[in-house]
Amino acid sequence: NAGVTQTPKFQVLKTGQSMTLQCAQDMNHNSMYWYRQDPGMGLRLIYYSASEGTTDKGEVPNGYNVSRLNKREFSLRLESAAPSQTSVYFCASRLVFQGLGEQYFGPGTRLTVT
Amino acid sequence: AQTVTQSQPEMSVQEAETVTLSCTYDTSESDYYLFWYKQPPSRQMILVIRQEAYKQQNATENRFSVNFQKAAKSFSLKISDSQLGDAAMYFCAYRSVNSGGSNYKLTFGKGTLLTVNP
Fold first, then answer.
1. Distance from B104 to chain A by nearest Cα, in Å?
2. DSSP codes, B53-98
3. What are phi and psi of A8, to 5 degrees?
4. B75 vs A35, A41, B14, B62, CA distance in Å?
5. Full pLDDT tens readout for chain A, 114 residues
6. What is d(CA B117, CA B114) in angstroms, rounded to the nearest whole number?
7. Among residues 19-78 of chain A, which lie with CB inside 8 Å of chain B?
8. Cβ contact B104–A50 (<8 Å)
9. Could you tell me which chain B residue has the CA closest to the CA of A49?
């Protein structure tokens, strides 16, 4: 049971390049999330998927797109990377109607845009 | 919208001592959940403790306990017998229990960096 996995762990992009961050969970969770973490800012929600087939914007969605490919996988795409998107990205998931709604996090992807 | 405030950007504690990390939040809701997450240098976010707002009893997990003051909207984390492995960034988080989109997300504070001195 790997929990929440993310690929890649590190990535360097040039301004204007595109890339997709991958996330998968093997806990049969319904909801999945993408956050970004910047120094002094805590974690801010980019997009979330309450259940398979649905996605919604969070606090900071501009410049990103997401795809909930199936129940296990939730990807985050940067179409045209900008230096402001340099950050650490976390994927998380939770099982609806279990516990108190705590989310389980992946190990993060450190992205640098030059 | 809910907000979570952690007023201490950094704290330090001597090994084996006790330390308390502060968290306050702003909400108009009467029922909600609160969490503390730990983020060590590995970056992995680890759930430390959780509290249901309708429960008056403070949650406890081994050396970690909370002081939940609902009227004051305060949710502090106490770490007893601090260990070197407790050194990490600690985040306080809030979750609504209402239906709808807000139910699905966590609102995080900006974090408190805890240093444990040997």
1. 7
2. TT--SPPEETTEEEEEETTTTEEEEEE-S--GGG-EEEEEEEEE-S
3. -80, 180
4. 23, 19, 23, 17
5. 679 999 999 999 999 999 999 999 999 998 999 999 998 888 999 999 988 889 999 989 999 999 998 999 999 999 999 999 999 999 999 887 666 778 899 999 999 999
6. 10
7. 31, 33, 40-45, 48, 50, 56, 58
8. yes
9. B104
